[in-house]
Amino acid sequence: MNPHGGGRATTDGGVRRRVVQWVLVGGNRHVVASLLLAIVFLTLALLGQFGVVALDDQATVRSVVGGFVPGLVAFLSIVLGINQLVLSQELASPGEIRRRIEEVREYRHDVEEAAGAEPSPVLPTGFLSFVVRAIESEAETLAESVRSEADSDVRDAVEEYAADVVDESERAQESLEQTHLGRINALLPVLEYNDSYQLIEARRLREEYEDRLPEESRESLSRMIRTLELFSVARSQFRSTYTQRVLAHLSRRLLYVGLPALVVVIVLGLLRTPSPVGTGWVRVVAVSALFTVALSPLAVLSAYLFRVASVAERTISEGPFVSRPQEAREEWNREARTRHTDRTGPSDDE
């Protein structure tokens, strides 16, 4: 048996996860779209060279091209629909705009009050870091409040919870510090921040040890719950802003690649027989390249939707409600262990 097999498998899994993470979220969308198109080109060229597909048959090419034209024209409708979706979020009456501004002002005031500092940063990275620091500071205050507590069960439970919050907050801070200031994708480093679990655990500790916790600890837990809720609001807001920004970029880039793709499709349909682009492998490569250009709008759309869907999936939890499968399984396991302890506790004492 290879003693290093487990380590190599773990390394391979980590590399695979980083690659998937890069394709879905972290990578430049232009690079991801280009890689998708490169895969399409190589696949078509190889299949055509080995005779699996008839790229040198003009009748076959024209029949395929006939289905491309309606699809590319439909992309114009997609672009129009995306622009309408983005604009619908921005169009409002003066009264609605004033109400939004007032709500934002109140929210920022609540965040500054929870953090004990003002003014709060304007940039997304700075604001998220501001809220995470407030969570970390409150966790340290919570741990300090039970340090002299005589009840070891209460002290250990609260200190363990506070330590978990501090560790995760520090990881989030490190990720935020590595991002470029002002970029809208500042949301991405905190996608995995488990605020739902922290919120649930804070409420559980407050309810379970209500009569045994010092007054200072109960107040600290209440402030922790409020700060975590403020963080959840901030992340949801930046998710909405990010999605609007991405959709606006996507609609413009679809126009950039859609019109050339439509021209290429027309050229493919009008190629003469015999074709002036050559014979044999030259024709296969040329037709593969033209088909790749024709598919570029779909590659761009896929690259952007990869990220939008991933962001939406990873930030779908709201407050104490957990929707991601992994978090749901962890919470179910915690609740199951709690129920088991409650059932077996009395018999152990006996």
UniProtKB/TrEMBL annotation:
Residues 325-350 are annotated as: Disordered. The keyword Membrane applies. The chain crosses the membrane at residues 31-55, 67-87, 254-272, 284-306. Residues 326-350 have a biased composition (Basic and acidic residues). It comes from the Archaea. InterPro entries: DUF7972 (IPR058278). Keywords: Membrane, Transmembrane, Transmembrane helix. This is DUF4239 domain-containing protein. It comes from Halopelagius fulvigenes.
